[in-house]
Specification:
mainly alpha; Arc Repressor Mutant, subunit A
C-alpha cells in the first residue's frame, strides 16, 4: 500500500495518520504512567519511550488530550 493510499484511507474515516499515531502514543503514555512498577521512571522518559521528542512537547500534548498534566495523571488525578 502506498503512503498516499494510507492517508486517503484515514481521511475517508475523518482521521489523519499523524493524529491517530499521536492518540495511540498518548494512550500508551497514560498506561505507562499508571503502572506502579514504572513509578521510578521520569515523566519525560515515559514521553520519550512513547515517541515524543522532548518532555515539554509531551507534557503539552498530554495535557491537551487528557485534560491534566502527566504528573497529575500519574497521581491518579
Amino acid at each position: 500500500m502506498s503512503l498516499r493510499t494510507l492517508h486517503r484511507a484515514f481521511a475517508a474515516q475523518g482521521h489523519t495518520f499523524a493524529g491517530t499515531l499521536r492518540e495511540l502514543r498518548l494512550a500508551r503514555a497514560g498506561e505507562l504512567l499508571r503502572r506502579p512498577q514504572l513509578a521510578h521512571v521520569a515523566v519525560g522518559e515515559i514521553g520519550r519511550r512513547c515517541g515524543f521528542a522532548d518532555a515539554s512537547h509531551f507534557a503539552r500534548a498530554f495535557r491537551r488530550a487528557m485534560g491534566v498534566s502527566p504528573a497529575q495523571w500519574w497521581r491518579g488525578g
